[in-house]
Design a protein that fits this description.
The complex is a heterodimer of chains A (486) and B (109). Chain A has 16 helices and 19 strands. Chain A is α+β, with helices and mostly antiparallel strands and 486 residues long. Chain A has a single domain, classed as tRNA-splicing ligase RtcB. In chain A, strands 7, 8, 9, 11, 15, 16, 18 and 19 form an eight-stranded mixed sheet that branches. Chain A has a seven-stranded mixed sheet with strand order 1-2-3-4-5-13-12, with helices on both faces. The longest helix of chain A has 36 residues, at 282-317. The radius of gyration of chain A is 21 Å and the shape is globular. The two termini of chain A are 32 Å apart. The model of chain A has no long low-confidence stretch (mean pLDDT 94). Chain B has a domain at 2-9 and 17-81: Archease domain (Archease, Possible Chaperone, Chain: A, domain 1). Helices cover 21% and strands 45% of the residues of chain B. In chain B, the strands form four sheets. Chain B has a three-stranded antiparallel sheet, covered by helices on one side. In chain B, strands 1-5 form a two-stranded antiparallel sheet. Classes of the chains: A alpha+beta (486), B alpha+beta (109). The A-B interface holds A 75-76, 100-101, 136-138, 192, 195-196, 198, 205-207, 245, 248, 251-252, 255, 259-260, 271-273, 275, 417, 444, 446 and B 27, 31, 38, 42, 45-46, 80-83, 85-92, 106, 108-109.
Chain lengths: 486, 109
């Protein structure tokens, strides 16, 4: 039997639970977890709630250490966590609060196609995507860049791809940060990180990264759907990838540096993976500059991947991507730290907001939301698992008020990869997906079983919680038709 | 770690192994272990080197030096199992048990 976490979770309401700061000496604020009774049972099955409590040890943390309903055990920080530190009050930045896959994120592309148009070509389409988009462990791409271009990518992000013909200005308008964070410094990225990221531009990667052809199967409320130009049955493409080896190494390098300076800043953390440094310290500034560079690498990567996807659609449907209406809906990061202004106890404060497995969900009217979406709120893309659903949501004012404009990021893992491999039968799973009309292509059997629907919580439950709690609003639900896995 | 990364599917006849000297340092035994694994992971991910055998190893309090024999990765002889993103500090531990050492390390896969 797995060990059940038996720490205190006090009910605030049907969707909010508190870990009081009295739980452990050293906690600076409460932990707050968003969940309903059903998800709470899953959350108690690993140490994620303990990790929410541990994050509240970090200097400068304000309001609470938050856990989203898709929260699950991670390294140091739980995956599905949000924590904001007040910079003027010695607030810290922690590479572990961002994760190894810096700017792992999702982009959603709309099309003018409907399921009836795609279904007859689905196998050809999925095979085309699988062959055109390099995926799998250590995959290398066809988009080759020189050392100088590599550094340009780290500054310009998706703008580099657009400048080189892999997209349009309109794509940048629909990307968080317009696809490039200011303040990235390629000189703060180690040679090792460059080496690990080399030749990986335009590659999907492995693990939970994927490409999916989806159909909208439910709309919730017409206002946002109309503003986004969405209709039932419409075909969408979702791309989930991150900063590949370059990001992993930036995180690892910075963790080493910050572990070495914990004494210097007199910081006590309950787990070395929570190593951190004040945002305004030389170590904090260096990490932020390198993290932004890695984030820009990831945005460029997803832009290149979308370019490859558009090319495949052009070939299969014998039409240009523009005529197929393949416009980017939005691209969001869900592993990132950002300097943002939020109201804390009635005062505007400059915070370092860590979102590790959490999505920015800025509400209507926020100046950082693209003008085309400013009335409805920022699009929030929530991938589910390959057998059930994914969602498009929008950010809300309640998220701004409660969670520094943050919400969940996915379904959330229920079973470890190891356990999934042990209990899921590849052939039975493929049959089950086939029966649902889902075409799957993957680099190996291992990834498919690790990513089986039964390895995840039901994304419908997770999204139900954030919608009912008000920290995001449902716009539409998609179901998968074709899946490419790394 | 290499057992997590890949498995050998068949022997390569006449394989020529590459010898490398690896030196790492660390403040504590946990740091030393992580630095050693980091180095091997880098050799694998960037240089596509697969650890075959450690020829000699010298472990001090704060440094470690080894001569290692590597095979070059070839998909015909090795099957890739997992991507290891990093060797984490999470619950990292090294302790002496009787006359041997016991280590715990968690990889981000």
């Amino acid at each position: 039997m797995p060990q059940i976490w038996d720490g205190p979770l006090e009910k605030i309401d049907d969707y909010r639970w508190r870990i009081p700061k009295s739980y452990k000496a050293g906690m600076r604020v409460d932990g707050i977890i968003y969940a309903d009774e059903k998800l709470l049972k899953d959350i108690r099955h690993d140490k994620a709630a303990e990790q929410v409590a541990n994050v509240s040890f970090l200097p400068g943390i304000v309001k609470a250490s938050f856990g989203m309903p898709d929260i699950h055990w991670g390294y140091g920080f739980a995956i599905g966590g949000v924590a904001a530190m007040d910079i003027e009050k010695g607030g810290v930045i922690s590479p572990g609060g961002v994760g190894y896959d810096i700017n792992c994120g999702v982009r959603l592309v709309r099309t003018d196609l409907f399921e009836k148009d795609v279904r007859p070509h689905l196998k050809e389409l999925v095979a085309g995507l699988f062959h055109a988009v390099p995926s799998g462990v250590g995959s290398e791409g066809d988009i080759r860049v020189t050392a100088r271009e590599e550094k340009e990518i780290l500054v310009k992000g998706a703008g580099w791809a657009v400048a080189n013909g892999y997209g349009t200005e309109d794509d940048l308008e629909a990307t968080e940060e317009r696809g490039a964070m200011a303040g990235a410094d390629p000189e703060k990225v180690s040679d090792r990180a460059y080496a690990r990221g080399r030749q990986q531009s335009g590659t999907l990667g492995s693990g939970n990264h994927f490409l999916e052809v989806q159909a909208i199967d439910q709309l919730y409320g017409r206002d946002a759907a109309d503003a986004l130009g969405l209709a039932e049955g419409q075909i969408m493409v979702m791309i989930h990838s991150g900063s590949r080896g370059l990001g992993y190494q930036v995180c690892d390098d910075s963790l080493k540096t910050m572990n070495a300076c914990l004494d210097k800043y007199n910081i006590h953390v309950p787990d070395r993976q929570l190593a951190c440094a004040p945002v305004e310290s030389p170590e904090g500034k260096d990490y932020l500059a390198a993290m932004r560079a890695a984030a820009n690498y990831a945005w460029n990567n997803r832009q290149c991947l979308m370019h490859l996807v558009r090319q495949v659609f052009e070939k299969v449907f014998a039409s240009s991507w523009q005529k197929l209406g393949m416009r980017l809906v939005y691209d969001v990061a869900h592993n990132i730290a950002k300097i943002e202004t939020h109201r804390v106890k009635g005062e505007e404060r400059m915070l370092c907001v860590h979102r590790k497995g959490a999505t920015r969900a800025f509400g209507p009217g926020h100046p950082d939301v693209p003008e085309r979406y400013r009335q409805i709120g920022q699009p929030v893309i929530i991938p589910g698992d390959m057998g059930r659903n994914s969602y498009l949501l929008v950010g809300t004012q309640a998220a701004m008020d409660e969670t520094f404009g943050s919400t969940c990021h996915g379904a959330g893992r229920l079973r470890s990869r190891h356990e999934a491999k042990r209990v899921v039968d590849f052939h039975a799973l493929m049959k089950e997906l086939e029966a649902k009309g889902i075409v799957v292509m993957a680099s190996g059997h291992g990834t498919v079983v690790e990513e089986a629907p039964s390895a995840y919580k039901d994304v419908n439950d997770v999204v139900g919680v954030v919608h009912n709690a008000g920290i995001a609003r449902r716009v539409c639900r998609m179901r998968p038709l074709g899946v490419v896995k790394g | 770690m290499f057992a997590v990364l890949l498995e050998k599917t068949k022997n390569r006849p006449g394989a020529v192994l590459t010898e490398k000297e690896i030196s790492v340092c660390g403040e504590e035994s946990e740091d030393l272990l992580k630095a050693w694994l980091d180095e091997l992971l880098f050799c694998y991910t960037v240089e596509h080197l697969v650890l075959v055998r450690i020829k000699s190893i010298d472990v001090g309090d704060r440094e470690m030096r080894a001569f290692v024999l590597f095979d070059i990765f070839d998909g015909e002889y090795y099957a890739v199992k997992e991507e290891v993103k990093a060797v984490t500090y999470h619950e990292l531990g090294v302790k002496k048990v009787h006359n041997s050492w016991q280590a715990q390390v968690i990889f981000d896969v």
